[in-house]
Amino acid sequence: MEETQKESMEYDVVIIGAGPSGLSAAIKLKQLALKSNMEVSVCLLEKGSEVGAHILSGNVFDPKSLDELIPDWKELGAPLKLPVTKDSVRYMLNKSTAIPAPVFFMPSFNNHGNYITSLANVCRWLAEYAENLGVEIFPGFAASELIYTDGVVKGVSTGDMGISLNGEKKDNYEPGIELFGKYTLLAEGCRGHLGKSIIEKFQLDTDKDPQHYGIGFKEIWDIDPSVHEEGLVIHSLGWPSKGTASGSYFYHGENNQAYIGYVVPLDYSNPHISPFNEFQQWKHQTSIAKYLKGGARVSYGARALIKGGHQSRPKMSFPGGILIGDDAGTLNFPKIKGSHTAMKSGMIAAETVIDALLNKNIGSDLVSYEDNFKASWLFDELYKARNWNPFLHKFGALMGGFFATIDQLIFRGRLPFTLNHTTPDHECLETADKHEKISYPKPDSLISFDVLSSVFLSNTNHEEDQPCHLVLSDPDIPIKHNLPLYDEPAQRYCPAGVYEIIEESDGPKFQINAQNCVHCKTCDIKDPSQNINWIAPEGTGGPNYPNM
Asked: CB–CB of 19/342 below 8 Å?
């Protein structure tokens, strides 16, 4: 296919991703520019069909960063209306028994002052606020690759639209555009493909623990008003988890709706585990099912979340840009919250960039970002949480949770040592012959459901005739290596039925149903051979979450 000259646009700052970190960075840039009486042009790219389309979070929202960014957010009508009224923490012994745990002993689960909301709607509100300040937001444009000049990031190039599966230009072909910036901020969320490439190129994770992840599921339910307890927040550990420190949430929102979800750490060893089926099984636990009986599921989604914490956070600056939010690993896993931390990282980035622009310091590696980060409450918060995940990994959910609680309750995260978790998630997977196959209950289509009906509720769509965005380094590995050794775990760890083993007359075939992909990135993380590379499909592709 012949090269087409791309149009280009120039800005002071280019931001990739309209999540909490990217939007907060954009707003702070404009606020600081106004305060300094300077003109700063800011462009924000979002691959989803609209701002919020790809946003998925629990979400119990900590307003700490929002208070700093927009102090009058209440008066301005931000979609934070329902404060948490009660916390409940439970350990599930089995399907019928749950033991309550005093929240006092688990301070990270104290949600006093937080709000039950839709993060997607919060992002839509922030986007409107940003646009009113002059930020240019372009939804439906997927940043496909970074632009380098003499080893310095100078912006991004968006992907071409209208390319067929075999790489030919279709009638609706539109070339991508190049967006040049004095600085580029990567705010793609967990396992962003540009962030992944920049970490590798500049070896930003040298002397760091490998990053660690979980796969998080979420459903929105309309539940019976007689069992709805507006403002109640429930967290649980234990059953039906199989050798992992999986956990769940159940948030009673407004309008008789419940936000429910389940998180499976991706450092599990048993290749027969199906995180999706773990989630569906959990809903049948007696203390959970009582809320869902007679209700109706209205939405479904899944997304990897980043949980390595302090030890896994890479160097965040590079020549010409900064990693922020989940691209930089700022989620506070003990709190199961990453929105306020992502926002703060974006705000610190904006302060750093503005200072560079004022001093005509263009294209350098803004190493001052790390100093500014360490001087903030964000560093302190993540440092105090640093041992939580390693405790769970080393000692399991029960004992690890006990030690982690002692760390947080007694020592306030200030233990005189730092634990490490040095094995990447994909290397934690053991061969199938070391584990018995797991027989999960069949879904009843009332409380539990199958994968395909779930994906339907995510409003996921991709143009079928386009290059596959799930790229195999070696197409032979799934059948020749992963299938005999691991019973090809992609069939089970994918939450959207993207990967299948099809039995044909000449033997098994590895099939990729890319149209189903909800952009969770689990395959890019957990494949034991690291053979699957997730790249950005055409803009607007993927899920379209309304209120996640």
From this structure: yes
pLDDT tens sequence across 163-210: 999 989 999 999 999 999 999 999 999 999 999 999 999 999 999 999
Q: What is the pTM of this model?
A: 0.96
**Distance between CA atoms of 133 and 357, rounded to whole angstroms?**
19
Closest by CA to 101, choosing from 91, 110, 87, is 91
Pick the CATH number of 8-71+121-209+311-384 from 3.10.150.10, 3.40.50.410, 1.20.1250.20, 3.50.50.60: 3.50.50.60
Sorted by where each begins, the domain ranges of the chain are 8-71+121-209+311-384, 388-423, 448-534
Backbone phi, psi, residue 539, to 5°: -55, 150
pLDDT digits (tens, 9 = 90+) for 72-108: 999 999 999 999 999 999 999 999 999 998 877 777 8
Q: Which pairs with CB-CB distance under 8 Å and at least 24 residues apart come from 133-136?
A: 133/26, 133/27, 133/30, 133/31, 133/34, 134/30, 134/42, 135/26, 135/27, 135/29, 135/30, 135/42, 135/43, 135/44, 136/11, 136/41, 136/42, 136/43, 136/44
293 class by beta-carbon count within 10 Å (0-12 exposed, 13-18 middle, 19+ buried): exposed
Helices (H), 397-450: 401-409
**Whether the Cβ atoms of residue 40 and residue 149 lie closer than 8 Å to each other:** no
At 503, which amino acid appears?
Answer: E
Say how far apart CA 334 and CA 218 lie, in whole Å.
18
Which residue ranges of the chain lie beneath pLDDT 50? Answer: none
The residues that bridge with 10 in the sheet, in sequence order, are: 180
Instruction: Give the three-state DSSP class for 279.
Output: helix
Question: d(Cα 441, Cα 289) in Å, to the nearest integer?
Answer: 15
Q: Which two tokens stand for residue 125?
A: 């509100």
- In order of 68, 77, 195, 510, 548, the CA distances from 27 in angstroms are 12, 17, 22, 45, 22
Evaluate whether 135 touches 129 at the Cβ level (below 8 Å): no
Q: How far apart are CA 545 and CA 458, in angstroms?
A: 6
